[in-house]
Amino acid sequence: MAGRSGVDDAVAAYLDHLTVERGAAVNTISSYRRDLRRYQEFLAGRGVTDLADVREDTVREFLVALRRGDPAAEVAPLADSSVARTLIAARGFHKFAAAEGLVSDDVAHAVRPPKAPRRLPKSLPVDDVLAILDAAGTSDGPRALRDRALLELLYSCGARISEVTSLDVDDIDVEHRAVVLRGKGGKERIVPVGRPALAAVDAYLVRGRPALVKKGTPALFLNIRGGRLSRQSAWQVLVDAADRAGITKDVSPHTLRHSFATHLLDGGADVRVVQELLGHSSVTTTQVYTLVTVTTMREVYATAHPRAR
């Protein structure tokens, strides 16, 4: 039979365990500490100071409180994603307490966090993407040529921003119209490149990059000091081009990636092919894009089919 243990002492022991034995990152520890502090305050508000006094119903009440908020105390309800994160922290804490013999049972193991709603990826219409690409290359200067080539590749390949900024010149295969991308975990994939993107890269290599390069570097995209262009700078290139194109929506490199996938599926591409192009390890990850195309299909059906209504 486990002895009695104070909630605060048990939380401190759990955070030490995450830090020392699990080697959790500083940001992770900070997040757990914040979420568990909310749990501690909930328990203290109910007069619970000993971990042995916590029951499964107590944890369920905590879940309800997170989702409901407390208008009297001006505490807003949390979004389902935040509720899930906070409850996961509490569940981990109780699992640790039971494993360490601080309590007899893991009272939180049966309490499940809410499923986060499946958010549709943000994508842009084709015309908006083309406007951004045109706005990137507004002159024939080295930076404008670089920016156009950068954005053309992002959209043409559906690449992550880190994959494009890490490209070397030799990663572009002009003969086979392909590029070697290095994704998460260093996993390489070969992705086809469209003619407009290749033309933009060629123009940059011939008339832009030589003016930027300061020393022998294999990097494809260079900053004004001759070093490899950073992800942050590449992001700013896109933001500036979207602003010049008059696109008022929030646009990020991932927006171009999502647009790439959505436009392919709208054009009839198989989801498994899109999976390979995006570098997703599971087709399930890619299938979220099909939600977008199903919505489009419903709209077309409702307006075009004579028996739709």
TrEMBL record:
Active site residues of this protein: R160, K184, H254, R257, H280, Y289 (o-(3'-phospho-dna)-tyrosine intermediate)
Coiled coil: none
InterPro entries noted in UniProt: CB (IPR044068), DNA_brk_join_enz (IPR011010), Integrase-like_cat_sf (IPR013762), Integrase_catalytic (IPR002104), Integrase_recombinase_N (IPR010998), Integrase_SAM-like_N (IPR004107), Recomb_XerD (IPR011932), Tyrosine_recombinase_XerC/XerD (IPR023009)
Biological process, per Gene Ontology: cell division; chromosome segregation; DNA transposition
All copies of domain Core-binding (CB), residue ranges: 5-98
Keywords: Cell cycle, Cell division, Chromosome partition, Cytoplasm, DNA integration, DNA recombination, DNA-binding
Pfam families linked: Phage_int_SAM_1, Phage_integrase
Localization: Cytoplasm
GO molecular function: DNA binding; tyrosine-based site-specific recombinase activity
Residues covered by the Tyr recombinase domain: 119-302
Entry GO terms, CC: cytoplasm
Keyword DNA-binding set for record: yes
Family designation: Belongs to the 'phage' integrase family. XerD subfamily.
Subunit (UniProt): Forms a cyclic heterotetrameric complex composed of two molecules of XerC and two molecules of XerD.
Function field: Site-specific tyrosine recombinase, which acts by catalyzing the cutting and rejoining of the recombining DNA molecules. The XerC-XerD complex is essential to convert dimers of the bacterial chromosome into monomers to permit their segregation at cell division. It also contributes to the segregational stability of plasmids.
Protein name, as recorded: Tyrosine recombinase XerD
Organism encoding this protein: Gordonia malaquae NBRC 108250
